[in-house]
Specification:
alpha+beta; globular; membrane; 44% strand; 4 domains; Ubiquitin-like (UB roll); 8 helices
Amino acid sequence: MQSVPKLGYAAGAVLACLAGPALALSSVDIVVKGVPEDVAEELRSQMELASASKRALDEEIADSQDIFAAALSDYRQMVSVMYGEGYYGPVVNVAVDGREASEISPLSVPGEIGAITITVTPGEQFRFGRTEVAPREPEAAAAGDPLVDGFAPGEPARSGLIGSAANAAVSEWREAGHAKAELGDEEIVADHPEAALDVDIELRPGPQLRFGTVTIEGQSKVKQKRLREILGLPEGEIFSPQELNDAANRLRRTGAFRTVSLLEAETPNPDGTLDYTLTVIDLPLHRFGVAAEYSTLDGMLLSGFWLHRNLFGGAEQLRFDAEIQNIGGETVGVGTAGSGIDYDFGVRLSRPAFLGPDNVAFAYANIKLDDEPDYKEKIATLGIGLTRYFSDDLLGEIAGGYRYSYVEDAFGTREFNHLAFPSRLEWDLRDDEGDPLYGAYLNYKATPMYGVNGSESLVQLDLDNRAYYSFGAEAPLTLAGRLQLGAVTGASLEGTPPEFLFFSGGGDTVRGQEYEGLGGSTYDGDTVGGRSFLGLSGEIRTRVTDSLGVVAFYDYGMVGADAWVDEDSNYHSGVGLGVRYATPIGPIRVDIATPYLGPEEEFSRVDLYIGVGQAF
């Protein structure tokens, strides 16, 4: 097995001076010998990802010194790949234009390097012999579960499993309150005649500890009393890494801090407690943002916000939001309500750590004008509520307030007055909120509304379910699906505010169909929203390059006059193609869509949608 020559800084400086003009590398070949072809193919794939020479080729590096350095580093890279797969006696050769790279003098590097050939003979794959990691935490050991799948006698001795097993064993002790658990002596022996790898790792769990005091450093404008309340570290309770992680996340979640650092003391206190030092750095006190989306049918959407991050010195957040929709959109409405511009203005004040570190109290007020194709509704709401963070992924919210609206639609003009109690449960398991490849997102809303001054009482349910799955390494293909369900019970169509009825069509439901063009029924020839909704969307996303992706999609929507959709409900669908361009703020989305099923003739027109982030 070849070893990697070590070059000193002085030699590197000489080489840099001697290197002359060079042509870009033209080829890098990787050859695996002595193993079955399926194994060789898998090893080649991993070697290509690890190879510095391959990266030099892909990046079209022309400097011969840089190419030569990449070739030398591939001795180490290839050995690392082999160890990772359990081959502990590999022979690695790296040929630079036919010459072994390790035999080329650093002072006479060729002025041009055209081809590099990496040849690896893995040898026999080793198996684990002894896999001793001790002592394990008693309850974990009693359960009989392996530390890591594959880390057992007779299994392929992949090097990465050793570190994973050791870390898992330390984590078991930390979960049991042993905050200072660490690795002791390690002995790893490769028995080449037997092709076996024996592993002996000692653990030093240390004593079980309890959370101690927190010292606060930094120049935050948030009061120290409030910092401790938000942090919520349970002083005196048994150490838990999850509690520690949750405490830091509570501060991050406020949006008031640029940096949150929670460091444990080097040594515990004599009474078995462990102290911590909290360092926070504030974000700027104020922030604002703007956004825009456009579709040829719905028109322009402009939105913006302004917020204050620390209103009363307790990380309270005051936020103003404004949104204007359907600017320049088509006027497709009928009757009394032609389609116009929608306005939405709101303010929300939130206070973290209200009656507990995982609770956020809030108050809100909102005024809104919905000038939709089939109705016009002026709305005012006012209320208070509470958000509960059950975990990093799961939150619940409940609120109560007053809602007033004045409506013009197919039924005429009327007023609605309700005591509204909106609530929701959100479970976000996506790997990336703006451009997910894996995971799921569930958002379930329920809004009971008690009618006053003659208004009918009702309950609206609104469910949004999304799932993502990707496969393929270099050009991942992502399958994305969305299921939307909605229902209104307890009130008639005429007795339900139009905002709580369901329409379909447009960028958030069925692309390619006119904005809110599908309702549940008609009244005197005018479209009326439905009391039930079913939406299905599917996308196939693939990446052409690191920055550019393409998408094919199909959207389907049903709106029913009754509380649940059935075979008599109205339906339509749309199909389309799109492109995505990656940016630091999320992918730029450009979709074109056309009607497919439904009242509109299929492929009768093409609509354009532009925005930031995936459609769902």
